[in-house]
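Data card: per-record layout.
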Amino acid sequence: MNSRYEDSTAWRRALRQDMASRRAALAGAEHEALSARIVAHALATLPKPRVAAFCWPIKHEPDVRPLLANWRSADVRAALPVVVAESEALRFREWSPDSRLEADRYGIPTPSAGEWLTPDLILLPLNGFDGAGYRLGYGGGYFDRTLAAAARRPRVIGVIYEYAFIATIHPQPHDIPVDYVVTERGVYARTDGRLRFLDRTAGSYSSPPCYAAEIAPDYFGDPTAGKPGT
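The structure for this 230-residue chain is written out next.
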């Protein structure tokens, strides 16, 4: 393993810890308010799928369950990811409010029964996102393997708080960018290899804000490299 990769791995690990600490510091009322704004923006902007996969919210991740409740009332089917093996792609099992959930090996609630579904849209919690639409995940590589193995790639929607914008995550060759990111500010769409903010009030695109959520910003040299609008 080369030193550059080792440096990147350590940097990402530290950044994940920092982002997790920031989420943990959210007060309950603030978490609810931010989640509600994310859901409202998603409802107003995102295309409605046939099958929507989402992740059960843990550790103050955005709670998008009200979005799924709205979509289910319009005959959209919902599903939760299931880890079948550490080295394999995720599978998705249908979820409803009546589903029986059991904690998986990571302590995440997972349906214990139900039909296996193939989502055409995945709502994916992030630790961070950059101007090219690359995401900082949790380090397990499950979603990258799942997307790479999909016969037909689902639309991927990152859900995260606005503070988590990073100049660049310095993506690895296996990293797959998202199609949209939804924060409490609004919705970003990936166009021509860049994220563009969908400014619904102006009816046009504008650049994402230059929030510096990075640890040790000089670690990879110029901290503005790859930042939208700079």
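Known properties of this structure: The chain has one domain: 3-206. Residues 1-7, 202-230 have pLDDT under 50 and may be disordered.

See the next section for split statistics.
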